[in-house]
Amino acid sequence: xxxxxxxxxxxxxxxxxxxxxxxxxxxxxxxxxxxxxxxxxxxxxxxxxxxxxxxxxxxxxxxxxxxxxxxxxxxxxxxxxxxxxxxxxxxxxxxxxxxxxxxxxxxxxxxxxxxxxxxxxxxxxxxxxxxxxxxxxxxxxxxxxxxxxxxxxxxxxxxxxxxxxxxxxxxxxxxxxxxxxxxxxxxxxxxxxxxxxxxxxxxxxxxxxxxxxxxxxxxxxxxxxxxxxxxxxxxxxxxxxxxxxxxxxxxxxxxxxxxxxxxxxxxxxxxxxxxxxxxxxxxx
DNA sequence: CACGAGACCTGTTCGC
DNA sequence: TGCGAACAGGTCTCGT
Length: 284
Known about the structure:
Elements: H1 4-16, E1 18-19, E2 26-27, E3 35-40, E4 46-48, H2 51-58, E5 63-69, E6 72-77, E7 81-85, E8 90-96, E9 105-111, E10 115-121, E11 127-131, H3 135-138, H4 152-160, H5 166-171, H6 181-191, H7 204-223, E12 260-264, E13 267-271
Parallel strand pairs: 4-11
Antiparallel strand pairs: 1-2, 3-9, 5-6, 6-7, 7-11, 8-10, 9-10, 12-13
Helix pairs in contact: 1-7, 4-7, 6-7
The structure holds a DNA duplex (16 and 16 nucleotides).
C-alpha cells in the first residue's frame, strides 16, 4: 500500500489526531503518550533489536513526536526512534485499549490514557526498528521530493548521470525517497514521459516538468488522504483521481487513447501510448 | 552498473 | 461451486 502520501497521512493522524481506526474514525493523537507495554505478535516484524530487548527498551518511553522520511514512519521516543515501514499491506490503527485485536495485528503498543496503537500487516512484509540513532536505516534514502532544497537543477543532474530507465530509477529509494508504483506511473503520465526512457536522455526542460509532476501527484495524494485500493488502507480518496494507474483499456483522460499496461522492472506499469511516446531511438 | 528472477507473505479476483 | 493462476501499494539478494 503505502507510498509517501499514505504514510504522511498516517503520520499526521498520529500527530494531530484523526481517522486511524479501521473505519477511519477520529482518534486522539498518540503524541505525548507513554508506552506501557509492547506486544509482538509476529516476531519477524521486528527488524531490530531482539524481541526481548525491544519490549524492555520501549516500555516507559514517551512518544514525543511523529514524522515521516520517505516511506518510513518515524516515532520519536524519549530515548530512541521507532521506525516503521509498512511495505505492501501495512497500516496503523489506533483504538481504545478495551477493543479487540485486529486479525492482522503484528505489533501492538499499549499507551497511557486507555489507547492502543497497532501495526497491522496482512502480508507480513512490514518491518519495525527501535534504534538510538536512525541514521543507519534512513541514511541511504535519497532526497525528499517535496523538499524545496531539492531543486530541478539537482534532479536534472542526477538523471543525467544515470543510464537506468525512468521507472526503476524513480522507484529506487536511494535516488528519490517516497515514490512507489502508483505515484511513479501517475507522475510519468503527467510529465508525458515513457517509463522506459533512459534517464540520461531526459532534457533539462523535461526534468523540470517531471519534478513538478512528481510534486503535483504527491500533493494531490496527501490532500486526498492517500489512495485506497482493494481491501487495504481504507479511508483515502486519491484512487478516484488516477489518470493511468489500473485504468488499462480505459480512455486516456487527455486524448482518449486506451491506456496500456506493460511490465517494467516486474511491476505493472500503466501508460498512455499517445501522450507518453517512447522515442524509437530509445528502444524497448 | 543495470537488469531479471526469486524470496518474503497473504488475500482477492479472474478464468475455466 | 471449486480450483488454480494471476495479481497486489515494497524491498532485498543473487546471478548474469
